[in-house]
Amino acid sequence: MDIKKQTNLQTKMPQRIEQIKHWLETEIQADIQSFNPASNDASFRRYFRVIFKQGVFHQVAGQSFIVMDAPPGKEDIAPFIKIAASLENTGVNVPHLYAVNDSMGFILMSDLGHDAYLSMLTAASSEMGIEQANKLYSDAMSALVIMQSGMQSAINNQKIELPDYDAERLKAEMMLLPEWYIKVHCQYTLNKAEQMVLEQAMVRLTHSAEEQPQFFVHRDYHSRNLMFYEEHNPGVIDFQDAVVGPVTYDLVSLLRDSYIAWPEQQVYVWLEQYRQILLREKLLEPDDKKQFIRWFDWMGIQRQLKVVGIFCRLNYRDGKDNYLNDIPQTLDYLYKVCARYPEFEALLELLRRLESE
User: Fold this and answer.
1) Options 3.30.200.20, 3.40.50.2300, 3.40.50.2000, 2.30.30.100; which CATH number does 3-110 get?
2) pLDDT tens for residues 214-228?
3) Which residues contact 351 (CB under 8 A, 6 or more apart)?
């Protein structure tokens, strides 16, 4: 979408808000006490926090709810609805859906609060706060394993059908790097030798992803999509793009988060903690620890190639320039991991050369 179309969509926002309010007042037959933006999304979805003057859905007056606004033609709410129901059945803390308007793209759901993991982790990022970070990541990894186990049962019993994170999808994501970072952001055209370097890296990364055990993948399991709770932590949101794919993908999203970074030694401590949970729950066969680390590292390369491309696309296509600020951290992950593996020496040289152009 070009900037002009994005602007045209924004001009329709007041109309959409009035439509949401009308739907809430007629569907729920309740008076709105307050209605305010809750957050935006990297997609076209928007979220609003609403409070009603009287209790609804057996909730007390003053209880806040979240409204998702997913414009039809831009966003499909059907996957979110199906996945939310299945995840709720696993016992993971996800929003409960109270009312849905399919034709308009509106959902009224429970409010998981204001405290995203990112703010909690940022506060804990000093050495003095590592115990708090340990607790937050431990809770997040436990919830991830519950999702993987519980959703696997639902998938096997055909209670829900999710697309596979197959070679075609993996490559399409990685191609966002040459399309948006190299061509648009760096304004550089790869020669044949450089194209071969990128292609060979993609083949290796795809093979590594496909040889891993395949489970439910949230696909964006990071600090902005996890909400802190004193009990039943964390709350999990933004799962509508879930697929069935590599066991390490969501852990990469969590531990090599583009929005907050930790010392590499600490990341591998958490990685081993997660591997031990998988072994204990019999979700992973007795394995080679080095292979599991390689799976994690190489999955990170795949994800970060994609994410750099996405951040550039969000800027140049959608006018969301704040995401450019997150590219340096993501590239830093790429440089450090590629430097550990001879297989990606040529890719590392290419990426460094592009940044210096």
Assistant:
1) 3.30.200.20
2) 999 999 999 999 999
3) 331, 334, 335, 338
